[in-house]
């Protein structure tokens, strides 16, 4: 069984450009536990530049956002003593996103996002996320995620 | 002369995926004054879905981000009593981005971003931005933009 939580999103909620496994054009963010941190790794395509040599902020915000919702799901499953893929599905969406750009993020290297859930409730998870380019934290983020409304599963 | 500030960005800083006129793959956000508001209009491509029928948050964050830096430049030129395109160029980058998702944003309609600069200093501009889908504000953002370091122009 995959340890990436996005691989367990119900089909009807697996189309997100940032993290949906069914979106052929998308970024395919995948979030998995590494002990108490939720980690995602991503090497941006060359087109996502801010200025030549550096990643544009919108992509970095997107990675933070989708890794935040993935981390929320991971944390909620863990808090419930369940594995992703068990029923009912736990799918979170973003209510609020904060991104601080600390330094330019170089293009051409794998970026590593490390998230810590700092508040875990049944319907709300807050995560703090650091984005690393090599050893350097270039972006810091905070995602408030809320459990997706049932209407999302009824389309 | 174009009234979109991004059309006046120096070539070496006009490659941003979000707003660079030279990025063939990009979103081409364009920001222009409509009296005291800076406005950008964008109809997302169908691939940028969250779930079917709705725009994914990362794209919305990208639009807020790039319209925030564009608005910062517009505000800085206006504060200096100068037109975009006059020398020296004023090019801002994002220090901090806050995005609140108030309601799902429907796909398939033109989105209108309306920004108000709420703090305008020589090297720092803060803007508050609302994103409209029709009459509804679906996303609210706040961008702290800072004047780009000279190093950006020396590559």
TrEMBL record, chains A, B:
<feature type="domain" description="Thioesterase">
    <location>
        <begin position="53"/>
        <end position="138"/>
    </location>
</feature>
<dbReference type="InterPro" id="IPR006683">
    <property type="entry name" value="Thioestr_dom"/>
</dbReference>
<dbReference type="InterPro" id="IPR029069">
    <property type="entry name" value="HotDog_dom_sf"/>
</dbReference>
<dbReference type="Pfam" id="PF03061">
    <property type="entry name" value="4HBT"/>
</dbReference>
<protein>
    <submittedName>
        <fullName>PaaI family thioesterase</fullName>
    </submittedName>
</protein>
């Amino acid at each position: 069984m995959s340890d990436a939580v996005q691989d367990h999103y119900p089909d009807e909620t697996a189309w997100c450009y940032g993290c949906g496994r069914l979106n052929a054009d998308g970024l395919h963010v995948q979030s998995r536990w590494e002990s108490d941190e939720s980690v995602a790794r991503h090497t941006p395509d060359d087109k996502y530049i801010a200025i030549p040599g550096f990643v544009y902020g919108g992509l970095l915000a997107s990675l933070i956002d989708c890794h935040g919702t993935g981390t929320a799901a991971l944390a909620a499953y863990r808090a419930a003593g369940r594995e992703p893929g068990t029923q009912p599905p736990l799918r979170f969406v973003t209510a609020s996103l904060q991104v601080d750009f600390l330094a330019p993020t170089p293009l051409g290297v794998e970026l590593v996002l490390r998230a810590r859930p700092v508040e875990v409730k049944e319907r709300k998870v807050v995560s703090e996320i650091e984005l690393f380019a090599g050893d350097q934290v270039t972006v810091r983020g905070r995602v408030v995620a809320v459990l997706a409304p049932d209407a999302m599963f009824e389309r």
